[in-house]
Amino acid sequence: MLVVAIETSTPHSTVALGNEQGIIGSTMLSRGRANHEVVVPAINHLLQWAEVRPSSLGGIAVGLGPGLFTGMRVGIATGKTLAQALGVPIVGLASLDVLAFSARYCRRLICAAIDAKRGELFSALYRPVPGGVARQTPFEAAKPAHLTAELESRPEDILVVGTGALVYRRELEEAGNHVEFASPAWAYPAATSLVELAIPRLLREDYDRLYDLQPHYLRKSDAEIAWDKRRRTG
Amino acid sequence: MRVLGIETSCDETAIAVVDDGRAVLSNTIASQVHLHERFGGVVPEVASRAHLENFNPLLELSLKEAGVTLGEIEGVAVTIGPGLVGALLVGIAAGKSLALALDLPFIGVNHLEGHIFANVLESGPIEEPYVAFVVSGGHTMLVHVPQALTYEILGQTLDDAAGEAFDKVARFLGLGFPGGPALDELARKGDPNAVRFPRAVTDRRFDFSLSGLKTAVVRHIKAERASGRETPVQDLAASFQEAVVEVQVDKTIAAARETGVRTVALGGGVVANSRLRRLLAERATSEGLRLLVPSPELCTDNGAMIACAGHFRLMRGERTPLDVGASPGLALH
Ligand SMILES: [Zn+2]
Fold first, then answer.
1. From CA B266, how far away is CA B116, in angstroms rounded?
2. Which chain B residues are closer than 8 Å to A215 by Cβ?
3. Which of A126, B119, B276, B319 supports an S-S bond with A110, CB 3.0-4.6 Å?
4. CA separation for the pair A79, B105 (Å, rounded)
5. Distance CA B225, CA B231 (A)
6. What predicted TM-score, i.e. pTM, was given to this entire model?
7. Burial, A119: exposed, middle or buried (Cβ in 10 Å; 0-12, 13-18, 19+)?
């Protein structure tokens, strides 16, 4: 089964084409800012290089965030509309899960952390298990100090991975020397991992309903937050 | 040629199927007004979220209403600007995906050009040269169109768009959001000469400015409230509306005279304003001008106008590469 995977919830826009045997091709572009316009051309190139017609695709996989709102929406709108136009199933996976999956061969507890802007991080903790990772905590949007305290309270060795680890390294280091930081090369949820995670789900027909698939925002819009605050105090 | 038109530049998710740039097979809109009402204006993040939620079911609905399958679509036209960047990007990503999946020609459309082309849907191709007046929640613009798909901006707003000013004054009068239609309704019962509000003067003849008028209205109401006098609200609405519309009509007619055109085309949500329609119709008749006014559902943002403009560009062999981005400040030229 040929699958296209799209992951754009960080400033790294990544797209991959793969099947049960592995990855056929992938692209990643990070210019330190959003790369929304390259997503569809990247898919187009991958398909052309691999000499695959869009109609031969068997499924679509998309990263659902949490992450940068606009990036998530571009990736998800692209994935959903491709699936709708081609009449193929779609699966969505949380970007933190995808990020932790790439670090599954370490023995440590894994903390996946994506920069959430506004001085916050999206994060969750994972334990490596045979074949992947198992999430230990719910997705959270919080200040770095909150995550630092959480890491400090854990006795075991921890690997922190993600764009959040890069941005808030100094704060998170204060949790203690049982915390190690993954290389920047692992800092983004990769579409190649997304392909690997999506194929088993597609094969067992564990699809998502196209119309229901939405990003993990974890945070309301600023206008709604201000509105709620006004209502509470007013 | 059956073109699918996608419009997500502001707070309406809109998808349409138009055949040969003329026959509207479907023109579906998922309005978000109820989501923005409590904020008193369009919130970009709220709009972007709703576009993503609405897009795919709306696509199905639009095709169903048009009685066509995706396989029968022959081109994809998408608004690429001007507008809210996050909102535009949802429609652009979806439009590109359709073009890629179905191997269709893809064209990015300027939203303002779309508003002008709303006329083509009802009246057929507009004979050049003509002057277009686009007036909406986000724009106030006078454009000279000397030949097909060529635009010379004669003037535009230096501050608030007309629709924006209507909304703000309506809010001050307690009319809710969006205030334009409510203000129009109220003004019909009022005396437009009750208060003589200032008519904006700008350095360049065809530019518009509404911030002074807006301030004058607010100041007038506050002063009256303080002194215990109160002009009836319908008179205030009618007087404010008259001040806005009179300047718009004067400038539009002057633009037509100066460029020597015989046709004036209107576009944009504020064209739904009854006073603007009536006054402009009167003046156009006395000047011997042909006035094109789209019906209200084609004045507000919609996908059919984008499909129509896209159709004529595609027919000229124009294509937009799939790496095009959103242009929040896209100019018409
Ligand atoms: Zn508009």
1. 7
2. 52
3. A126
4. 19
5. 9
6. 0.95
7. exposed
Encoded tokens for A38: 């390259």
Q: In whole angstroms, how large is the CA radius of gyration of chain B?
A: 20
Q: Which of B70, B93, B101 lies nearest to residue A77, judging by beta carbons?
A: B93
Residues 6+ apart with CB under 8 A from A12: A28, A29, A30, A35, A163, A187, A188
**CA nearest B69 in A: which residue?**
A85
B155 forms bridges with which residues in the sheet?
A: B142
Task: Give percent of chain B above pLDDT 90.
Answer: 80
The residue to which tokens 């009685």 are assigned:
B67
C-alpha span between A13 and A74 (Å, rounded)? 10
Query: Of the candidates B39, B48, B322, which has its C-beta nearest A44's C-beta?
Result: B322
Residue type, A3: V
pLDDT (0 to 100) of residue B234: 93
B102 vs A43, A76, A85: nearest CB: A85
pLDDT for res A234: 58
What token pair was written down for A124?
């969750």
Which chain A residue's Cα is nearest to B101?
A54
Closest CA to B167 of B275, B41, B300, B45: B41
Q: Which residues of B198-223 are buried (b: 16+ CB within 10 A; e: fewer)?
A: eebeeeeebbbbbeebbebbeebbee
Cβ A193 vs Cβ A86: under 8 Å: no
The mean pLDDT of A176-181, rounded to a whole number, is 96
**What's the CA gap between B77 and B96, in Å, rounded?**
9
